């Protein structure tokens, strides 16, 4: 949750609820309870005092569109409060949750989750959310540190990092053997190995004295370039 400052999360925004209480729900095929059933979420949000409710019937898994979610965010105005049945109905990760609620607070919009009892319009709720934000930052730093340590350990083991070469050592040796025969052209060897002529020149340095022919139609091997 990079860029979110503590004062933004602890500030009293909105200072008082002066607008609408707006509910949002999201369906879930894997949760056949109130938390996942769109209509039961709608009923719970209305019972909690929401005057407007937006509900996406699909879960939004895999980056699927959530039109009601987008409409809900667009409808919120300063002084409004966004309410969800559970935190996982709003986002799928802690960093996403912190980022979204922090954005709402900069717009003067409060946030409330019924199941967890979280309410950023109260001092206690803002303090709890501040802890969430600190935890999200801690987890992000652990991930970065773990990735850095993993890369260092791989390098220490002599492991090659990044994209593998287009030609393996065996293929390079095979190319050199074929080039020793005058009837084999650079283009024909490149086609046989499934690479372009420019790739072949790159991996066989002794070809440097020959004229490099710009890649032509016979070099079109999708996904096999360096």
Automatic annotation (TrEMBL):
Residues 1-38, 206-226 are annotated as: Disordered. It comes from the Bacteria. Residues 20-158 form the Resolvase/invertase-type recombinase catalytic domain. Pfam families: HTH_7, Resolvase. Keywords: DNA recombination, DNA-binding. Belongs to the site-specific recombinase resolvase family. This is Recombinase family protein.
